[in-house]
Amino acid sequence: MVIPRVQAAIASAFGEEFRGTDPVIRPSQFADIQINAAMALGKRVGLPPRDAAARIVDDLDLDGICTAVEISGPGFINLTFDGTWIEELLNAQASTSASPAVVPAAGPAAGTTAAAGPAAEPGRVVVDYSSPNVAKEMHVGHLRTTVVGDSLVKVLEALGDTVIRQNHIGDWGTPFGMLIEHWLEIGEDSPEAALLVDDPSAFYQAARAKFDASPTDEDGFAARARLRVVALQGGDEETFAVWQRLVAQSKRYFNAIYSMLGISLTDDHIAGESSYDAHLAQLCEELQARGIARISDGALCTFPAGFTGRDGAPQPLIIRKSDGGYGYGTTDLATIRYRVRELAADRVLYVVGAPQNVHLRMVMATARDASWLPDTVDAVHVQIGNVLGEDGKILKSRSGAPVKLMALLEEAVDRARAVIDASRPELTDEERAVTARQVGIGAVKYADLSVGHDTEYVFDFDRMLALNGNTGPYVQYAAARIRSILRKAGVLEHYTGTGTTAAGAASGAAAPATAIAVVEPAERALALHLLEYGVTLQRVGELLEPHRLCTYLFELAQLFTSFYDQCPVLKAEDSVRESRLALCALVLRRLAGGLELLGIETPENM
To answer: Which stretches of 55-134 are assigned E, i.e. beta strand?
Structure first.
């Protein structure tokens, strides 16, 4: 819409070499949007910015789109959109029957007038996220990789990409000799065996304590555990069968967490370290034969260019240890090779903790040296920052151990339930339980997603559960409030297509034919923001930053509140009332759709 027209005007004014120049669109306090490109263009073409802006405006064709195009200040170009044009775009969105999570028509500042639809060039995207360890508790550190990864998956799918989820669980390696031997000693039916599902850390710690306290003789637990590793890697049937039971028990635990969080990962998405074990020896041989890997201090290593240690010497990526064993580097190389060759990925995303950045970049560099990761495939480390406690350090329990994720989620729901019990006693017990889960889990997920994924944030229940500020409950409340308005007007079923169920506004039911009129300033501000939904999702998909969607939803909720305060809905005259109810319904679809892409439910009552 606006962007291609501005770019065409720039090319016409200054030459074809300037086509594609970023218009630098920003909000304006004097108009709907402001174009700032003339500031930088003036320097490039040797003109004062105002003169450069004047030349752009002379060649700018916005007939039927803008009612005013003005140059202000040192060279800003202010655009005021035509109200009829805004209404046409808005009603086109309101009339679509697509799911609220699907990208709608682009906004006024976007580059296309196309209606709802997928990304221009959908691709195959492999997303590696969550990645817990078998026989270990998922802690708060796994929260972010799981929540951010799942949101990116949902957004990319809404944009039209084919997304392949990969849960690279830690299910192989030397610790399993210890765990298998412990399992065999205590027996499958013992209460301790059940800890794998109820308290995985306790099971692991019991095995670890037994290993550390074991005598050094050949009949001791530690010696037997080491032999179990050899048996496991050698394919011993009994040992492998026990390993399978350990993994199966851990899957039950993982799935309980995913169910609590509303995460879309299933057992079908698991592709653990064990998946690649049979290929590691051949991988090392190939790298060595091609001169990419060499022996250093007894270990087989690659030395990708650009990586040095503190002493300035080349930094190695160990792919086979001096004892013949394999590490994360080997498995990660096998993983990236598989995702390109077998899964035909165009893009591979690693939603992994920020401390792994150097390691992953070395893996990617080695994979490119080996031609396993061609230039046509984009590999990205979506860095995940730490979750901090009030002391500014990594969040831990009072005992100093990592905070268990299930305990944290249960506390969030309990806290939400206490607030709902006090504020909405008229709801049934079941309704309050459902709302408490939706609000509590939603608050935790939103707090995680609303900050840059590569930044740290302080975990604070009071702030997360607040009904004001940029929080999940604030956005959820705006959606619940609109449901209440539509319900009072007797049109909730008409607008959602599913009656008064909690899933109603996220059902994607056909929208009503009522035309939305944009007259008042608060209506105009709300309408313009609604039109930026698709552009926002596209930016999230390009930049892999879910916090941009959170910011959009928060601002939408704020603008709706201003609109509702300034523009009567239920008490308005008939035609105005119907228009504003239709506008409310579209806001509800966008709030519900956006929260859906964040993996957050919209409560029926709050």
So the answer is: 66-72, 76-81, 124-128
